[in-house]
Amino acid sequence: MTRQQFQDDTVKLRPKLLQVALRYLRDSVEAEDVVQDVMLKLWSMCDGLKPPVDRLALVMVKNLCIDRIRSRRPRGSLDQVAAVEDEDDERLEAMMQAIDALPPMQQTILRLRHEEGMATEEIALLVGMTEVAVRKTLSRARMNVRDQLTKRR
Fold it and tell me: What is d(CA 78, CA 153) in angstroms, rounded to the nearest whole number?
């Protein structure tokens, strides 16, 4: 793409990019910064670009806006992070205990599906059941685990 083509395309594209950024960020100054950053990135890639660049530019604006929104989130102190990790460990331990308490077939099917990542048809062949029976057993296993976890709270 030539420099002139790039300039012609981006002059037409800029208002649309700004509108998208404003929808995400709701701050005109920050939206303008995002669009400017995208324009600079596109300019640096200008020699390798092929028209039209509008889709690429839109994706870049959306991604940059999402990054900015995520960076706004408050970060907790190390104590808060450790507390959350401890809570997650407790939840995981409770879930593993609930799975261990399942009847053997439900436990087997649940582990094959979620730990091994096997498809329903593969599990059916392995355990000698129909796919419908595997789905039903898997559903019952999930309900039992959910019930066990809600009882503990």
Answer: 26
For residue 116, the model assigns a pLDDT of 82
What is d(CA 79, CA 75) in angstroms, rounded to the nearest whole number? Answer: 11
- Which one-letter amino acid corresponds to residue 90? E
Q: Which H or E run contains 80?
A: helix 78-100
Q: Return the DSSP state at 43.
A: H
Token pair belonging to 86: 């401890």
Q: Tell me whether residue 65 is exposed, middle or buried, using C-beta atoms within 10 angstroms of its C-beta: 0 to 12, 13 to 18, 19 or more.
A: buried
Q: What does the pLDDT average to over 53-68?
A: 88
Please report, for residues 44, 56, 83, 103, the alpha-carbon distance to residue 52 in angstroms, rounded to integers and kept in the order given: 16, 8, 49, 58
Q: How far apart are CA 80 and CA 46, in angstroms?
A: 45
| pLDDT tens digit sequence for 10-37 | 888 899 999 999 998 888 899 999 999 9
pLDDT at site 26:
86
What is the reported pTM? 0.48
